[in-house]
Amino acid sequence: MKKATLSLEQMTAGIRPLDEEACARAAAHLDQLTKPPGSLGKLEAVAVQLAGMTGELAPELGRKAVVVMAGDHGVCEEGVSAFPQEVTPQMVMNFLGGGAAVNVLARHAGAEVVCVDIGVNAELSHEKLISRKVRWGTRNLAREAAMTREEALAAVQVGYELALELADQGVGLFATGEMGIGNTTPSAAILSAFTGLPPEAVVGRGTGIGDERLVHKQKVLAQALEVNKPDASDPLDVLAKVGGLEIAGLTGLILGAAEKRKPVVIDGFISSAAALTASRMAPLSQAYMIASHLSDEQGHRLMLDALGLRPMVTLDMRLGEGTGAVLCFHLVEAAIRVMAEMATFASAGVSNQE
Fold it and tell me: What is the pTM of this model?
């Protein structure tokens, strides 16, 4: 039986603001711990944010999962990547076999890798693969819209419903991951469409292209924006015209996690394009996002600025896959441990500031 198609309104209506009273209790508790106020920096901000999501000072989040959405891109026809498109399905099989960087880092964090084929331009079969293919890769956004509006919405729904399913199965901490050769181009296009920033500011080297191909990539992006004229006031229009299937899937994942009041740790440039899209679709969803790291990709800082998010760390990473987000699972858990285990001035018999 075919699943009912959800509207964007249905996928955003259930998102609620953080519990401000819980945030205030968390902030007050932090100020009673044996340290100068604010001295644990971003860990304290995350602790307050988690309290606002869950209503608890030291929540038990349960299972951890990085959801890796995979999809191909028609814009690869324009020669914007240093790697051929065949790498996308090959890397998906690598994820499923446990051999990619995100698998290694997920094991280290005690997290599971959930791999989703939402738009790979190849036939894939594996017992661990979640097959939710909307179409076999996007169209070439430099020549036409990457997706129809209906396809983009369907891809958002894939991620949204998966977040609800995983949350119901006990996942309480999400990370966004992705795979798709060529996907820094639609990510840069999304950033440019929403902010008005020029291609020169938002286009980076992606998989490691040289200077000549970088200039070509900037021209491809300018052409895509001219051909499609995405409407910044209509986030689904932007996503459909210049986005990607895996970006749309991650957008839905973020919306679903926010509805379930679960933290979602945002990875790098591509994941942040999904986060920016989600925030434009449902501004309240931003409160459930935790920015993990500052990518080495040129436009990522601009993306985070547009989101109003501050990254936890800077590691000069630009791999994607969810690698930086999974690393930051450790920091999220550290923030909870501080709330649960650190002594207060009163309990430790330590004099507080006057």
Answer: 0.97
